[in-house]
Amino acid sequence: MSKQYQFKLVLLGESAVGKSSLVLRFVKDQFDDYRESTIGAAFLTQTVNLDDGSTVKFEIWDTAGQERYKSLAPMYYRNANCAVVVYDITQPSSLEKARTWIRELQRQADPSIVITLCGNKSDLAARRQVTQEEAQKYAEEEGLMWGETSAKTGEGVADIFTTLAKKLPQTAPPPSSRGARGTRGGAPASGGRAGVDLNKSGNVIGTGPDGCNC
Amino acid sequence: MSADTEIRSLLRPSERVIASLRASASASDDKSRSNQNVNEVALAVIAHVDSGDRHDGLERGSVIVLDSVSLNPQSVTPKKLRIISATPITSELTISIAQGMTQGLFVLTLQVTTSSESRSRSAHETTRTFTTSDSHALSEFTSACRRFQSQAPNEDSFAWLASYAAMTTATSAYDVPPTVEPQSRHPQTHRTLPIAVPVNSLPLHECLSSAAAGQPGDEDKDIAMIKEDWVRRTLDVECAGDKTTIRIRIGSFNVNGKYPSQDLHPWLRKPSSPQLPNAMSGGKETASVYTAKIGDAIQGEPDLFVLGFQELDLAPESLLYSTSAAAARVDAWTAAIFAGLGELRDEYQKIAIHQLVGMLIIILAKKSIIPRISQIRTASLGTGLMGIMGNKGAVGLRLVVSSTSLTFVNSHLAAADEMLARRNSDFHDLERRLVFPGELREDSESHDGMGYERSSIGGDYDYDADMVASGDLNYRIDLPDADVRALLSSPNLHLRELGVRDMVLHDQLKNVIKEGQSFKGFLEGDITHLPTYRFATGLSTDALGYDMKWVLSRHTSFGSSLSRSVIRRRPAWTDRVLWMSRHPSQVNILAYAAHSEITMSDHRPLAATFEVKINDVDKLKQAEMAATLFEKIGNIEDAEATHKLKLASSTIDLGAVSFRRPVMKQMELQNIGKIASTFRFVPMRPRGPIHAPWLSITPLAGLILPGETMSIIITAFIDERTAAPLNMNPNRLDETLILHTARGKDHFVSVTGQYQPTCFANSLSWLVRLHEPIRSTKREVESHSKQLLNAPKEIMRLVNWLMSHATNIPGLFITRADEGLVDNIRDALDTGNEISAEEKLSDPHVAIAVGETLLRFLDSLTTPVVPASIHARCMEATSRDEAFEILDQFPEESVNVWISITAFLHFVLQQDAHASKNVNEDTDQSTRANIIAAVFAPILLRDDAAKAPRVSPLAKRKFLLYFIT
Ligand SMILES: Nc1nc2c(ncn2[C@@H]2O[C@H](COP(=O)(O)OP(=O)(O)OP(=O)(O)O)[C@@H](O)[C@H]2O)c(=O)[nH]1
Ligand SMILES: [Mg+2]
Predict the structure, then answer these.
(1) Residue B439 lies in a domain
(2) Cα–Cα distance for residue pair B682/B701, rounded to 1 Å
(3) What does the domain layout of chain A look like in residue ranges?
(4) Do residue B673 and residue B820 come from a single domain?
(5) Could you tell me if A193 lies within 8 Å of chain B, comparing CB atoms?
(6) Could you tell me the keywords of this UniProt record (chain B) (predicted)?
(7) Following DSSP, what letter does each residue of B215-258 receive, concatenated?
(8) Which range of residues forms the domain containing residue B747?
């Protein structure tokens, strides 16, 4: 059985915590010491192959962390299947900000949204200000997934997204719509998907080349 | 054997021949038939009576087309007829007849439009054109068709045709009609160009899919459109041809079934005509004030006359038969047109004519321009009885001058006051179904929709396309009959102009265009002429000649308990000329007027003169270049490609932004990716606004080649409409724009600025709190002070100034002011500076500008001096005393404003009365007062734009007159 899933993912968190760096590492396996702050929302896609042969394609919106664009964030997390809320382990204030985002998501986003709390810049352990215990405890209380990453070294990045990719097909109900970004854009890339009935079963957007769905 | 007999021999006994016709199938561009370009055919209308259980006594009709084959080419025996197509006569079949270029030759067009349910199939329109010289047989043929059509049969009544469809040969040039065998239809072999220039001339961003932040919409479609638009724009620049200007005179005349009995010269040649019959226009009228008489400046003769007639023939049989009487009428009007041209008649030639029942369109061209004209095409559509009959509908002509396509549509839409919705739907019908047969297109299957998409990718580059929609559109004026007549009846020119201006605000067509309900995107010249309908002769007319008879309305008027009510046909601008262009700046209207000298119909003829820029482009070169450009763009659609656009800056500081003073900023957008990318600005929320109403962005969507940079212009302009919300919360302008890269990032752009508040567009209740000029820094403190002013100091300053310097200025409140002066005076009010320099105090231009500033100030108030909620009460006053009593009900801040303004006006009129004895004998005092009332009443008692029941403009004037006379 080789199913293909597609999920909309949104990254939220204070400016400079490393959201864009995290995505760059995940999508292109690169890191950039001097990244410009995101003024807007960047769109990227990445596909994760799971052990059972199924694939999960993430449609990622990397949002602007700067306070003045906060009012635009809801436009990007609405219809999202999952959110990665990022804080910087060297900045306690960024965890506070992450909590605010999580509260907002719990109130305003799709109730089925899967949230991962992500402590970034784990390579800067020497300057750590947020303990793992504190963050993990908070995540457990709120029923979130949690992990630490370093976009710089790549440590933990794949884990965060793979764990999400495994969890989503089990928890996420069929999206009410095909997601804000139409699936058309990505469809041709993966060949055999054309013509598959997207409405058939939840997020399963296609089957393997054998064309058998059962 | 006669044709009929031979045809009959091919039919089953259950069918009979109603009419038949010998014709030539027009030289077609159908490649499959290139070996025999002109094909002699026979057409027949055959009827079938269903003898089965479902017999309903109705005959069904079908048009069959037969060609003649000869088995042995050497044989001298007559060729044998063979059925090559059978088409059921339903509403999907459009039959039109046009006079051919050669005298005595007629062009018959049969067009099948498959209904929308079956649109998913590739082919949906088939057009066949035949020519014949047998006018008698042709009229029998068409009237037979129309008769069957009028029975509006449904499609399932045509099973009997199947056997004939089967007889049609596989090599047939024609399609088997879809109702018979839908699956077996050949792809269509004829392309039709949509008439839908309207859709095409919408700005690009309005054609794009609905998108918002985080919701890109249909990117494939958007990319394709932006690409296409870019190619067209680039061609415009890189492949621009010689531009020349031609002059076109458009006429529309509902002749009410009359034969020409008067000289048409004024309609054809005069820029404008006196507004009133001679008897009434005796007085020395001063020059028009609100509208310059643009027409008088006109020199030069039109290169094209495009004349549209309606109700050419009112005889009921004209609906069904193409009678010889109808032909005689066409001849008579054609002759009258040439006669009306006077000494110019030999310079023109009739180049195209097209008729559907009473609707006729004729184009005359100056001989010198004829060599530049090509591709004349015709279209017609009946929307009348049963939705198909030609008593209403349109006839159109499309032609190409050099390389610019010009389309002229003469329409006659549903009549009667209460049929507004029907007129709108008639228009949409025309927009959808009136099509001109076009050339064969290679890509005939790929375009299904109308408009933008249809003429889109891979099509020709008829980017230069203008369209004129004229005719008896039948839209009325939403004002009571008595008001319309009274507004029109003044013998004074100013007053009539003001009346026309008031009436235009209530014109149904202007309002439906504004609201996008029909004729969306069309433009019209300023209406300064009197209504063109409905005139009568004899006793039952008013002083202007408008019909006064009472007639039964066709429908219940709302609020009436009677099933039918008695109404009078109010004068109305039923006859109109509208236009639309892909390049609006290339069409310029020079004159727009009705010609009251021509009194033979119940309508007056209307004419508009245009100057149109014509392009002369080498189409072949253009097509090659287009192909190169598409290649240059490359495959943007490729899903794997990464699109990278970089904004030079994500913030734009507008600096200080003042009322009515535009601020322009540029923003650089660079393509730093490897392939071409498209972008568009999107709203924050779906269907929301892309930007604040006081901002504009050009372009709102576009394409950038790799490595190139585009400048996007951001303009801030705050006017009366947009200032009010800013005045409420002034100081900082702060906007976030969202620029979306197709398949990529959303960029945010912060636009900030410092708003300089103005006293315009505020409420009286706020202004009376401000003791200091609005831009004074002390303002914050003041807004809390308890002591209110009696009236806004701005009004008092203006009125006091006028009182001391402008009590005897001719043209005050009437003559148009100098814009620069008005701006300065407004600034003076905002800052507290002097209204005018000492040495200018006696300059009448300054006085006129101060007067205009007062009017504009009052008009800009967020709530009018007299709020709409008490208008009705004001209208109840029947005497001066009652009027003054109503003042008690005015809001506190309004009372003093009202009193000081009316007192001033009263004073001015007194002065005038005194002065007029020697200066201005022509205008008596009551006329002066009426003019002032007509100017001030709509402003002081402004309607609530959002609410329906508007108070009569006349009653408002009357109320104001109690105070100023
Ligand atoms: N040492 C270290 N630096 C990192 C890491 N991730 C990001 N950075 C740096 O942190 C800075 C900010 O990273 P971005 O990815 O731009 O942060 P962002 O969350 O996208 O910020 P906004 O776009 O403003 O919301 C950059 O200078 C990165 O190089 C990391 O894991 N370790
Ligand atoms: Mg970022």
Answers:
(1) yes
(2) 9
(3) 4-206
(4) no
(5) no
(6) Cytoplasmic vesicle, Endosome
(7) B---HHHHHHHHHHHHHHHHHHHHT--EEEEEEEEEEEEE-TTP
(8) 637-756
Q: Is residue B592 part of a domain?
A: yes
- Phi first, then psi, for residue A19 (nearest 5°) are -60, -50
Model ipTM?
0.83
The model's pLDDT over B578-606, given as tens digits with 9 standing for 90+, comes to 998 877 788 999 999 999 999 999 999 99
Judgement on whether residues B434 and B486 belong to the same structural domain of the protein: yes
Instruction: Please give the backbone phi and psi of residue B260, each rounded to the nearest 5 degrees, phi first.
Output: -65, 130
Rounded to the nearest 5 percent, the helix, strand and coil shares of chain A are 35, 25, 40
As a whole number of angstroms, the distance between CA A121 and CA A152 comes to 7
Confirm whether B785 is domain-assigned: no
Task: Assign residue B641 the CATH number of its domain.
Answer: 2.60.40.10
Task: Check: CB of residue B2 under 8 Å from CB of residue B81.
Answer: no
Long-range Cβ contacts of B538-546 (<8 Å, 24+ apart)? B542/B485, B542/B489, B543/B280, B543/B489, B544/B276, B544/B277, B544/B280, B544/B485, B544/B488, B544/B489, B544/B571, B545/B277, B545/B599, B546/B485, B546/B488, B546/B571
Please check whether residue B772 lies inside any domain of the structure: no
Q: Are B592 and B645 members of one domain? A: no
CA B827 to CA B822: how far, in whole Å?
9
Of A42, A75, A188, the CB nearest to B213: A75
Same domain flag for B801 and B936 = yes
Structure tokens at B937: 């009443």
Interface test with B, best of A75, A108, A184 (most B CBs within 10 A): A75
- Give the tens place of pLDDT for each residue, A89-120: 999 999 999 999 999 999 999 999 999 999 99
Mark whether B570 and B643 lie in a shared domain.
Answer: no
Structure confidence by residue, pLDDT tens digits, B311-369: 998 876 666 556 677 788 999 999 999 999 999 999 999 999 999 888 999 999 999 99
B261 with B295, same domain?
Answer: yes
CA distances to B402, B766, B884, B899, B936 from B959, rounded to whole Å, are 58, 26, 10, 13, 11
Interval between CA B738 and ligand 1 midpoint (Å): 23
Q: Which of B887, B779, B885, B891 is nearest to B832 (CA)?
A: B779
CA neighbor of B413 nearest in space, from B403, B402, B424: B424
Q: Which residues contact B331 (CB under 8 A, 6 or more apart)?
A: none
Residue B135: φ, ψ to 5° = -65, -30
Query: Residue B897 is part of a domain; what is its CATH number?
Result: 1.10.555.10
In total, how many domains does chain B have?
Answer: 4
Specify the residue with its C-alpha closest to ligand 1, atom 8: A18
Among all bound ligands, the one having the nearest atom to the CA of A94 is: 1
Nearest residue (by CA) to ligand 1, atom 28, is A33
Q: Is B617:B598 a contact under the CB 8 Å cutoff?
A: no
| Domain's final residue, options B157, B178, B199 | B178
> What SS3 class is residue A51?
coil
Three-class DSSP category at B668: strand
Coil, helix or strand at residue B660? coil
Rounded CA separation A109/A122 (Å): 28
Q: Is B57 left (phi over 0), alpha (psi -120 to 50) or beta?
A: left
Residues 10-29 of A with CB under 8 A from B: none
B393 and B538, same domain (yes or no): yes
Query: Domain spanning A4-206 has what CATH number?
Result: 3.40.50.300
Q: Report the b/e string of B270-296 with b at 16+ CB within 10 A.
A: bbbbebbeeeeeeeebeebeeeeebbe
Q: Is the pTM of this model over 0.80?
A: no
Task: Write out the two tokens for B442.
Answer: 């290679």
B724 phi, psi to nearest 5 deg: -55, -55
Count the neighbouring beta carbons within 10 Å of the beta carbon of residue B537. 11
3-state class (DSSP) for residue A60: strand
Cβ(B223)–Cβ(B742) below 8 Å = yes
Question: Which among B735, B756, B777 is the end of a domain?
Answer: B756
The verdict on B594 and B721 lying in the same domain is no
Q: Is A40 strand, coil or helix?
A: strand
